C-alpha cells in the first residue's frame, strides 16, 4: 500500500473508531468534568484567562470543567490522544487547523442555526469555522488581523515618519539598523524582527500579510470547491522578493530570524534587538508592560506596490471533539464562549493574557472593554483581513510554503522566482492529493 493510501486508511479507521467507541478525555471518563484543551503555555496569563472562562461557565451551567493548557507540540499530543481513543471534549485552537482536524475525523459538526447566540457572530468569523466541504465544524471564538508593533522612541530618534509604503518601511528598517536608535553607541539593533523558521509554518505565516497585502495568494478558488496554486503569480513573487531583499541586501532583519519561532521573536523585540514587528494583537499588552507603553506604537501594515486586500486574518475556534460522552456540555460551553459574557472574559480588558483578541460577538464593544486605542488598529485591519482558503487541509500548504520561503531567506543565492515556481508545482500536487484541484 502506498504511503498516501495508508495514511487515508488510517485516518478513516481512526475516525470510525472515535465515533464508534467514544472518547471524551481522561477527565470525562473519570469524574464527569468537561475536558477543555487550549493551545497556550501552562501557567501563562492566557492559560489563567482560559481557567477563568471555564470557571464562569461552570458557575453558569453547573457543568464541571478541567482546563489543559499545552503549547509545544500541541497537535502531536492531540494525535497521541486520538490514538488512545481519548480525545478531550473541547479544543480551542487555530482556525487554520480546521481542515487538519476534520480530515482526521476528530470533529463534530456544529449546527449554526441551533447554536444559541450564533446569530450574533460575524459572518467573517463563521467563514473561518467552515471547512472545504462547506460544513461548519466549529464555533468561532476569537478573531485577529495583523499590524506592526514598533519602537516609537526609535523612530523619533532617527527622525522619520510612520511608514505608509513598503519603501518607507524598508527605509525605517535601515535607519533602525544603522543609526543606533537606542543610543548605546553599539551596532546591535536591527529593523525587522521576523519569526522566519519553518516550525508550524512560521515563515509562510509571517509572509502571508505581505503576499495578501500585495494582491497575491497561495491558492486561488477555481470553482466547485477546486483551487489552483498561484504562488508564482508576480504579486506573490514580488512580496517574497521584498522580504528576501531585507534579509540579504539591506541586512535589516535580526540575526537568527530564519530559525526563530514567535516565542523567540517576542523576546528579541522585548530585548531591544529590533524595532519593527509585524504580529497579532495578542502581544500588545505584554509589550506595553515589558517594553513600556510610551516606547511602542501600532500602525497598519503598508500595502505593497501592486495593492491588495489586507493582512492575514485568523483566530481561534471552539472545536467540539468527536466521541465525547458529554455532547450537551460541549454545546453549552461553545454557547457560553461565544456569548457576550464569555467574550468579555476572554478579552481580559487591556491586561496581558487575552484569549479573545478581537471579539466575534457583535454585542461586544471593543472600545468599551479596552481603553488602549492601539487595539483599534487591529480591529480596523480585520475588516479587510484574508483568511486561509477552505481547502480540505491548509496545514501542509502552509508548511510546504514555509519551507520554500525560508529557503530564499536563508540562502541569498536562491532565485525567488524559481523557488516560487517550484513551490507552485508542489502545491499543485498537494491540491491533487487533497482532491481539491
UniProtKB/TrEMBL annotation:
The keyword Metal-binding does not apply. This is Sugar ABC transporter substrate-binding protein. PROSITE patterns: PROKAR_LIPOPROTEIN (PS51257). Belongs to the bacterial solute-binding protein 1 family. Keywords: Signal, Transport. Transmembrane segments: none annotated. The lineage of its organism: Bacteria, Bacillati, Actinomycetota, Actinomycetes, Streptosporangiales. CDD domains: PBP2_TMBP_like (cd13585).
Amino acid at each position: 500500500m502506498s504511503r498516501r493510501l495508508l495514511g487515508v486508511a488510517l485516518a478513516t479507521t481512526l475516525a470510525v473508531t472515535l465515533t464508534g467507541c467514544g472518547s471524551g478525555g481522561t477527565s470525562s471518563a473519570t469524574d464527569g468534568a468537561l475536558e477543555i484543551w487550549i493551545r497556550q503555555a501552562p501557567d501563562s496569563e492566557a492559560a489563567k484567562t482560559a481557567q477563568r472562562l471555564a470557571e464562569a461557565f461552570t458557575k453558569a451551567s453547573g457543568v464541571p470543567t478541567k482546563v489543559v493548557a499545552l503549547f509545544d507540540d500541541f497537535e502531536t499530543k492531540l494525535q497521541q490522544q486520538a490514538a488512545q481513543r481519548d480525545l478531550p471534549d473541547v479544543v480551542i485552537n487555530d482556525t487554520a487547523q480546521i481542515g487538519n482536524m476534520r480530515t482526521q475525523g476528530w470533529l463534530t459538526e456544529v449546527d449554526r442555526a441551533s447554536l444559541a447566540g450564533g446569530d450574533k457572530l460575524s459572518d467573517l468569523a463563521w467563514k473561518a469555522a467552515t471547512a472545504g466541504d462547506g460544513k461548519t465544524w466549529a464555533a468561532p471564538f476569537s478573531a485577529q488581523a495583523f499590524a506592526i508593533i514598533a519602537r516609537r522612541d526609535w523612530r523619533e530618534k532617527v527622525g522619520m515618519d510612520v511608514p505608509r509604503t513598503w519603501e518607507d518601511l524598508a527605509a525605517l528598517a535601515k535607519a533602525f539598523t544603522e543609526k543606533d536608535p537606542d543610543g548605546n553607541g553599539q551596532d546591535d539593533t536591527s529593523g525587522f524582527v521576523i519569526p522566519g523558521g519553518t516550525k508550524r509554518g512560521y515563515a509562510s505565516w509571517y509572509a502571508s500579510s505581505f503576499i495578501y497585502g500585495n494582491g497575491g495568494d497561495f491558492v486561488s478558488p477555481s470553482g466547485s470547491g477546486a483551487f489552483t496554486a498561484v504562488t508564482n503569480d508576480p504579486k506573490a513573487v514580488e512580496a517574497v522578493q521584498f522580504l528576501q531583499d531585507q534579509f540579504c541586501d539591506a541586512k535589516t532583519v535580526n540575526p537568527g530570524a530564519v530559525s526563530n519561532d514567535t516565542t523567540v521573536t517576542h523576546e528579541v523585540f522585548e530585548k531591544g534587538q529590533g524595532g519593527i514587528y509585524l504580529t497579532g494583537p495578542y502581544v500588545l499588552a505584554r509589550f506595553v508592560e515589558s517594553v513600556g507603553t510610551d516606547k511602542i506604537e501600532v500602525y497598519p501594515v503598508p500595502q505593497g506596490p501592486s495593492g491588495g486586500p489586507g493582512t492575514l486574518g485568523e483566530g481561534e475556534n471552539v472545536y467540539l471533539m468527536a466521541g465525547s460522552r458529554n455532547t450537551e456540555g460541549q454545546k453549552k460551553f461553545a454557547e457560553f464562549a461565544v456569548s457576550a459574557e464569555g467574550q468579555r472574559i476572554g478579552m481580559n480588558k487591556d491586561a496581558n493574557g487575552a484569549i479573545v483578541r478581537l471579539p466575534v460577538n457583535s454585542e461586544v464593544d471593543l472600545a468599551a472593554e479596552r481603553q488602549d486605542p492601539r487595539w483599534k488598529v487591529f480591529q480596523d485591519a480585520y475588516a479587510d483581513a484574508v483568511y486561509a482558503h477552505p481547502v480540505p487541509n491548509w496545514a501542509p500548504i502552509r508548511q510546504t510554503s514555509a519551507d520554500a520561503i525560508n529557503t530564499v531567506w536563508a540562502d541569498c543565492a536562491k532565485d525567488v522566482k524559481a523557488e516560487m515556481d517550484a513551490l507552485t508545482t508542489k502545491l499543485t500536487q498537494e491540491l491533487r492529493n487533497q482532491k481539491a484541484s
